[in-house]
Specification:
This protein has a single domain, classed as NADH Oxidase, CATH 3.40.109.10. α2 runs antiparallel to α5 and α3 runs antiparallel to α6. It contains seven helices and four strands, in the order ααβααβαβαβα. The two termini are about 15 Å apart. With about 190 residues, the protein is an alpha+beta fold.
């Protein structure tokens, strides 16, 4: 099945050019893409904490990352923390609020790709540190950080980053993830 080249070409790099800067226009486009993502019940629970390399917000976001992500993410041009509403008494709305973050992130990642940037979503951060650092109010929950950067020349990368970025990108075949009739019965697009 043909997949649009923007989607097929997307991957989560770690080897970013630490000298690349993102314009306010490109970053605004990426944020707008997230803002216009589908939202369950029209509730719009997603909020962004946005840092650009060199500002205090960016430094705070880096500080809140787990060690593995701290090894490469500081070279990103921008970091965006995506937060949602915490709705523990309403499981359905809690699910929608969580899904909304995924939908917003997906659109942001795609917009970054369209604009010639690479976006890398990360779950490896310390939520409590982010809540404290950015005074995230009760009822809001940080779920994901997205790094936005320009790819660096692979020969300039540390060997462990270059090795990870050069790994083949793979996914399970469709027949292992799409089912029809019953679980495990592979969906087929053949008539």
């Amino acid at each position: 099945m043909p997949v649009h080249p923007i989607l097929a070409g997307r991957w989560s790099a770690r080897g970013y050019d630490a000298t690349a800067t993102i314009s306010a226009e490109h970053l605004g486009d990426i944020l707008e893409a997230g803002r216009w993502a589908p939202t369950g019940g029209g509730n719009q629970p997603v909020r962004f904490v946005v840092g650009v390399r060199g500002d205090d917000t960016f430094d705070g976001l880096v500080d809140g990352l787990k060690r593995g992500n701290q090894s490469w993410a500081p070279a990103a041009a921008a970091l965006i923390l995506l937060c949602t509403a915490d709705v523990p008494d309403e499981p359905k709305m809690q699910d929608y609020a969580t899904l909304d973050v995924g939908l917003a992130a997906s659109q942001m990642i795609t917009q970054a790709q369209v604009d010639g940037w690479n976006a890398h979503p990360m779950g490896g951060f310390r939520a409590e540190a982010m809540i404290e650092r950015f005074a995230i109010p009760p009822g809001r929950r940080p779920l994901l950080v997205v790094a936005i950067g320009r790819l660096s020349d692979p020969t300039s990368l540390r060997p462990e980053i270059a090795e990870r970025d050069s790994r083949e990108r793979t996914r399970l075949p469709l027949h292992q993830v799409a089912f029809s009739d019953s679980w495990g019965s592979s969906y087929t697009s053949e008539p």
